[in-house]
Amino acid sequence: MIKLLPRYVLSFVLLVFLQVFILNNIQFSGYINPYIYVLFILVLPFETPKWFLLIIAFTLGLTIDLFSSTVGMHSSATVVMAFFRPYVLKVISPRDGYESETLPQLRYYGASWFIRYSVILILIHHFFLFYIEVFRFTHFFATFARAVLSSIFTIILVLISQYFYRKDTRR
Predict the structure, then answer these.
(1) If DSSP codes are grouped into helix, strand and coil, which group holds residue 111?
(2) Of 83, 125, 165, 171, whose CB neighbour count within 10 A is largest?
(3) Is the alpha carbon torsion for 43, 45, 46, 51 positive or negative?
(4) Dist CA 13 CA 40 (whole Å)
(5) Distance between CA atoms of 76 and 68, rounded to whole angstroms?
(6) pLDDT at position 169, please?
(7) Domain extents in the chain
(8) pLDDT in tens, 65-81
(9) What's the whole-model pTM score?
């Protein structure tokens, strides 16, 4: 993980930049808000300790909150997502387990596995984020629609981004 640190720092900065300066300015009739920054939590190594994963998630969410003036909503949603990540990985693990030196990415485990993994975690993130934003159930169905539509758009962006990761020859 240490040798991958510069790559993760650059990825962190790039995803925050994309989210804050481009995607936060995109809203399709108030129902679709893409959140590509969750990709950072999705592609962290399997061996990332749970406590460190929560700290990274909080830092990522807090950074988005600072630029978006959302007072802890993104940091709480990313921490919830990071909390559930190890359990989701355990539930959808391949029969033989995860290979060493691989990452939770499309190129290592295929489209079916990656789509299940990312859909579950993105839905957790988005439902938590949108319901904490509204903080009441009076607009339950409108909030539900926002969370689902934003999740679909985010999943599409995450899948597209997986094709930009360079191919490694080692596996």
Answers:
(1) helix
(2) 125
(3) negative
(4) 10
(5) 14
(6) 39
(7) 2-18+39-94+101-162
(8) 999 988 899 999 999 99
(9) 0.91
